[in-house]
Amino acid sequence: MSSYTLRGDCMNQDEAKPLWNGQSLDTAARDVLARELEDALAKILEAWFPRCVDQEHGGFLSDFDYRWRPRGPQLKMLEYQTRMLRLISRAAAHPRFESYRQYATHGFQYLRDVMWDREFGGWFRMLDHTGKPLEAGTKHGHGASYGIAAYIAYFELTSDPQALTLAQEAFQWLEKAGHDSEYGGYYALYTREGMPILSREQCPIPNLVRDCIGTPLGFKDANTNGDMLETMVDLYRVSPDEKVKARLLEMLHIVRDIMVVPPGAVHMYFQPNWTPVPDIARYSYGINTSNILAKASRSPCLESDTKTRDVVKSVVDTVLQYGWDASRGGFFYGGSTFGPTHLEDIIVFIDTKFWWPQAEGMRALLRLALLYPDDERNYMQRFHQLWSYIKEYIIDARRGGWLWVGKDSRPRRWRSAKATPWKEPSHEVHSLLECLRLLRS
């Protein structure tokens, strides 16, 4: 199949006329772009599967160097295992990728039989490659939210009733272990027995000040609670009871009305009562939060949710203003709320362009391009600039997969690992699947 780069002067090889003109896509352009993105998705899956499948110990291997050679301890981290199960379950639901269904079953069995704590419930956050619990058997809400979502994705793929039952059981465990009944939302780190860890004194891991995702002990964070919102949207879709609905609406209020503040900035850390704690602005999480809120706004229990849609637009607009590379395209990681700022003679700005914000940016920009085709920001133009950037600087056309960072922002890091416990292809797979849905809906 031919590959097309859609620009203002792009020509359909059969019809010899522009496919994309200005800020909108016609039917032919949508079809060509969808085929190109589908081919890109196929290449990602081919790069990862079956090489990441651990046939000896179960689950998925998490350490590969830039040449895709297995390197490292191959730890089994909950986030990695659950993200892999979720992405392959969703991809296998696409007619073109049905053959990947077997890997979803493989991942489901590992999550069910090895990572779940049969004595106290909940998933261990970290195991060694053989399945032995590490980190004093502690558990974490960030990975648990992905675990529930992964079970739901597998249930929607297979209609296996056990997957739905296990998702509901995991939700009930998480309610007891992490939910704050006084102020709402979720604490992140728990003991093996299922008690929230709110101080260093309560923590069985010596000298721990911040948890595995950087959240200070006893605080709440946007990363865990934003992903909780997405998980509640998924859970309500397959299990629409009143308790799940109440939690979905609670998390929507927290993410949309507390985490996000005008002009579209996203706070990262909070006191237990949701008072924000000052910190740097992460433009990357802004893009991710916009996608979570956009998904929530489509939930059946929200009907026409114009308020959420307005917040989504404000977040993306703010990131475009302060975190977008106007020269080459792509999103910078972070800085101050209003871009680079001076602290004495030091400029505070993180200009690295990691792979995952670029992936999340694709669906964020395409969504707004279709919703607001006449907006002065020209989201469609930005989308094409971003996709061109990804193809030139992020995709490894020689060896497959996506690089950790854009070759323009950190040239010496092109040899960074293709996979670590924190790098798997969920962001790019989900974003491409969402772009396909948007183009073909």
Please tell me about this protein's structure:
There is one protein chain. It is built from 12 helices and 15 strands. It is mainly alpha-helical and 441 residues long. The protein has a domain of 184 residues: Glycosyltransferase. Helix 6 runs parallel beside helix 8. The strands form 7 sheets. It has a 3-stranded antiparallel β-sheet with strand order 7-10-11. It has a two-stranded antiparallel ribbon with strand order 1-2. The protein is globular, with a radius of gyration of 21 Å. Strand 10 and strand 11 form a beta hairpin.
Could you list some keywords that capture this structure?
mainly alpha
Reconstruct the topology from this structure:
Elements: E1 20-21, E2 24-25, H1 27-48, E3 76-77, H2 78-92, H3 101-115, E4 126-127, E5 139-140, H4 141-158, H5 161-178, E6 189-190, E7 220-221, H6 222-238, H7 242-259, E8 260-261, E9 265-266, E10 269-270, E11 276-277, E12 281-282, H8 283-297, H9 306-323, E13 334-335, E14 341-343, E15 346-348, H10 355-371, H11 379-394, H12 426-440
Helix pairs in contact: 1-12, 2-3, 2-4, 2-12, 3-4, 4-5, 4-6, 6-7, 6-8, 8-9, 8-10, 10-11, 10-12
